[in-house]
Amino acid sequence: MHISDGILAPPVLAAGALLSAGGLGIGLRRIRDEDIPRTAMLTAAFFVASLIHVPLGPSTVHLIINGLAGIILGWAAFPALFIGLLLQALLFGYGGLSVLGVNTFNTAAPAVLCGSLFHLLRRRSPDGLIKLPVAAGLCTALCIAMTGLLNAVVLITSHSRFMNAALALLAAHVPVMIIEAVLSASIIAFLLKTRPDLLEPRA
Amino acid sequence: MNLTDSLNNHYPASVLDRLDPRLRLLAALLLITVIILLQSRPALATVLGGAIVMAVAARPPLTVTLTRIIPLNVMLALFFPFIALAHVQGLQFGVSAKGLHLFIDIVLRANALLITALALVGSLDIPVLGHALVHLRVPRRLAHLLLFTIRYLEVMHREFMALSRAARVRNFHPGANRHTYRTLAAMVGQLLLRSLDRAERILKAMKCRGYNGQFHLLRHFSFRACDAVFALCFVPGCVLLIVFDRML
Fold first, then answer.
1. Mean of the pLDDT values across residues B242-247?
2. For labeling, which of B58, B170, B174, B217 is most exposed (least CB within 10 Å)?
3. CB distance B28 to B215 below 8 Å
């Protein structure tokens, strides 16, 4: 879910750009030079995954897949999602350059939080109390909910007339939230079976 | 939208190609900031006109122009009822004047921003964009990540297409059911694994060639007389726009 060019107020855009710059700074400092190919390949893979049409009822939705990016990349999700959004704006014209900061923050900040929450659950919860795929599903659902809330908040703070649009946008996140939770849980189950070491956080 | 086509989208040669790519990025950044700050409709209309003139000079292919402008305006049209419709009574709705004015400003601003990006940034080949960003002192790792991602985006896309063909060969028909979600999850999981394996091989190959965190850029840009002329017209133009806007 992108917010387009031309809608948000200047202070909101400036705040988004500054917060994203901060997040990018932290994310880049946590990546070592050796991690660059790994992070870039995962960025490319997440970008491709976000192009998939996932059937839902009679229609299809696109994944945002930021929750999973947060689980696998940690703080490096900031640069990864920034590059993904930049390329989407440049290659397809989704989103836009002026809203890049806001869109990056609204997807990456929940991703980092959701990633930390998942790893906290993984380390702290007694064995078998909460299964990891279930934890991943819950964390990614929470992540999309937070992205939806942030998107609604930037609209509402931009103009008083955007209230209804913000509520509609928030409602549009609900199906994505469900589908992302189901898919992320299955993806984590798949990775646990094939390469459990992947879920060790790096950055 | 075809990813390969988008990645290889070359604009035909234009006058804008003579400009230093670094200057074009800075000019885009300045103009985007100005457009965001404009408040009056005549100023917005002027800047939209200016952006269109630049876009005509940049000669973007028609398909690129249409596939950017149509979706943006369809999106904005969906937005229209939420901001411009006012409840009259019962099931009657009317268009409120305030909402309509707000909507017109949004349409002008959004299109001006999009066309500016299309003219000044879209016409840059994406690898050139990456090099220009490095020379503009964007954090080194961010630029490297961008260049690597661009390099392997298509590789990953091909991997995914192969997985999706393999699924179709086994008579996979996506639908809204559990089987589809499990299959798609396995495909995305497999894609992630392949990306990691590939990354390991890339890193090893890079280390064999003495990688130590440096990525040597062989492309350098020069700021020439025509860049100075462009900057001398562009910057005062932006200042005039802001002044014009505040006077109205």
1. 92
2. B170
3. no
